[in-house]
Amino acid sequence: MTKAEGNLFLLSGPSGSGKDTVIGEVLRQLPELRFSISCITRPRRAESDDQKYRFVTAEEFKKGIREEAFLEYAEYCGNYYGTPAAPIDRWRRQGLDVLVECDTEGARQICRKKPEAISIFLMPPSFAVLHKRLTGRGTESNDQTARRLAAAVEEMKKAHRYQYVVVNDHLPDAVGQLIAILTAARCRFGANEEFINEVLQDAQSFHWEAHSGL
Ligand code: 5GP
Known about the structure:
alpha/beta, Rossmann fold
């Protein structure tokens, strides 16, 4: 069966919406799905950061910009975040779906360059929960937390730009909804056209006359 080009999924959501947990669980349940590792200039916050980020210096990041190595990049709370383009193109050519996590600015850039991208916004269940998650982390100063809260509100104002919204209240529900979106994209006609044509080709070369008595 010929594989169509893989889908490109964008996931955004404010800091504190639980993106890392949701993404980790989705990747565990869908081992074929590829996750795009971002290059970032922010200092390491937790061990788990190593699974989703490549930490680079501002100089290295700027070199990447000059060489047009990023599909998108943005400045977020004083640090650079960027999505390397090459692995995404390679995976998609191999027929593998790719999940990119980025802020609303990054998503805007990607949707312009890749209009076929499927965009999903992850929402916290309430502002109170968002606030609690951001202050309860204990990894940032009050000032940084306030900046992240303000940035979160700005991000949520842009949720209308996305095709899908998933509310992360109960983790298994949010994961299930995200997987449903990814699965539905695989079932679209465009993703199956080549396969359907192959079946029809086989039908053409079938010896119908040998079965004329059926
Ligand atoms: P954090 O510092 O909390 O890990 O991430 C801060 C913000 O940057 C989050 O909204 C996250 O989704 C976003 N982000 C993560 N990777 C990328 C990326 O490659 N590009 C862009 N534009 N944003 C990213």
